[in-house]
User: Which sequence fits this backbone?
């Protein structure tokens, strides 16, 4: 039996994680959870999971009301409340389904506490990869990805063996504007960008898919998780999102993880700690698969190059990359910034924010706030 704390329970990954826990009551006990502002959802979770002892919401006013309604539960609030929730809840596993930089400190704390960390929150791996790997090297906790590509890569590498792998092909749908030319994107709206062709996900990652910053993040995430270096990971355009990634073997064969685009599978793999049956689809050529594949064009999606360059710089660069991207994406979603300017804000911040070589967690937090401030002012100045 695994006692689980779920961070971000009300989101796309959060609600699908609840589905998996509900289906396996003899294997999981939900003992704590957090959500942001959708407080109406608290009673739904408590009805389905009476085992919950502690919870956290984003705003203190909501926490005050909930404490009156549920006097037997410990109820925390805000960013520090996420840490209190982890510190004061006896658990074996933490599922991080938060979106954005806010997921970093909880990921680090979960590992410090020796928990099994199942992380959908890719931003924490992109920004804090060095710190997280440092903790894992010290034997603190365990890290399992939830991102579908990384679950696929983990399964495939376990099957093929890293020593027998020639390279990893990470698949990309191309997002909502994949059939439009770059020069036709100047006036696209948030509603256009949120219409993802194959996946139903939270707003932020859907915009990151449209710029393909998401794929840049995922190549970095693959390096952090598998230690392979970014040159080992090649993006490949794949329209249907059925092939979650591919390992090309030194034997010349392609090993693929194939299933319908549904995050329940990767989440289940993570919380079951890899204990799920898996057989790769093995072909001599990708043409044998009944799907579309095409080469990736770096000029069409410059965000990928920005992400890889930032990762090469190292230090606090990925914190700048991520913070600038988050600020720009939310500005676009609120109609304060044109779509194509998202990348420009990231490019600007990577030049403007001073570089730090081996940042501590506090320095990453400081870099995050400074970058956001700078980008906010830059966007305001440009309006
Ligand atoms: P979402 O926006 O649907 O949900 C985010 C959750 O975090 C919500 O519960 C929200 O209330 C909470 N939250 C957000 N900001 C918060 C804050 N400041 N304080 C406290 N709580 C806060 O996001 P999502 O699509 O589920 O994505 C979650 C993570 O998983 C992201 O890092 C994303 O890149 C990754 N991911 C998502 C998918 C997907 O299919 N949705 C697939 C792969 C990876
Ligand atoms: Mg993914």
Assistant:
């Amino acid at each position: 039996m695994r006692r689980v704390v779920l961070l971000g329970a009300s989101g796309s990954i959060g609600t699908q994680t609840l589905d998996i826990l509900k289906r396996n009551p003899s294997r999981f006990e939900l003992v704590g959870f957090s959500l942001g502002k959708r407080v109406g959802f608290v009673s739904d979770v408590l009805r389905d999971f009476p085992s919950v002892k502690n919870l956290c919401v984003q705003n203190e006013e909501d926490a005050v009301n909930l404490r009156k309604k549920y006097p037997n539960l410990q109820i925390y609030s805000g960013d520090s409340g996420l840490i209190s929730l982890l510190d004061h809840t006896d658990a074996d596993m933490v599922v991080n389904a938060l979106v954005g930089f806010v997921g970093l400190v909880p990921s680090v704390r979960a590992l410090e506490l020796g928990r099994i960390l199942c992380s959908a929150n890719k931003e924490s791996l992109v920004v804090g990869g060095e710190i997280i790997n440092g903790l894992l090297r010290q034997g603190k906790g365990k890290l399992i990805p939830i991102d579908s590509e990384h679950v696929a890569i983990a399964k495939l590498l376990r099957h093929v063996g890293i020593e027998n792998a020639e390279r990893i092909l990470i698949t990309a749908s191309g997002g909502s504007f994949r059939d439009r030319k770059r020069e036709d994107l100047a006036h696209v709206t948030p509603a256009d960008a949120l219409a993802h062709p194959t996946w139903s996900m939270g707003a932020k990652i859907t915009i990151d898919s449209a710029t393909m910053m998401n794929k840049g993040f995922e190549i970095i995430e693959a390096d952090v998780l598998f230690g392979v270096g970014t040159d080992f990971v090649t993006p490949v355009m794949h329209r249907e999102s059925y092939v979650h990634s591919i390992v090309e073997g030194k034997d010349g064969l392609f090993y693929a993880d194939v299933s319908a685009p549904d995050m329940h599978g990767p989440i289940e793999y993570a919380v079951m700690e890899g204990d799920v049956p898996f057989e790769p689809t093995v072909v001599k050529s990708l043409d044998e698969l009944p799907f579309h594949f095409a080469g990736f064009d770096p000029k069409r999606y410059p965000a990928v190059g920005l992400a890889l360059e930032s990762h090469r710089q190292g230090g606090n660069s990925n914190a700048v990359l991520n913070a600038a991207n988050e600020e720009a994406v939310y500005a676009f979603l609120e109609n304060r910034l044109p779509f194509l300017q998202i990348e420009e804000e990231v490019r600007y911040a990577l030049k403007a924010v001073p570089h730090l070589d081996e940042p501590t967690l506090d320095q990453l937090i400081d870099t995050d706030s400074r970058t956001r401030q700078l980008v906010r002012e830059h966007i305001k100045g440009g309006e």
User: Anything to note?
Assistant: Residues 2-145 form a domain with the Rossmann fold fold (CATH 3.40.50.720). The chain is about 45% helix and 15% strand. Residues 77 and 351 are 35 Å apart (CA to CA).
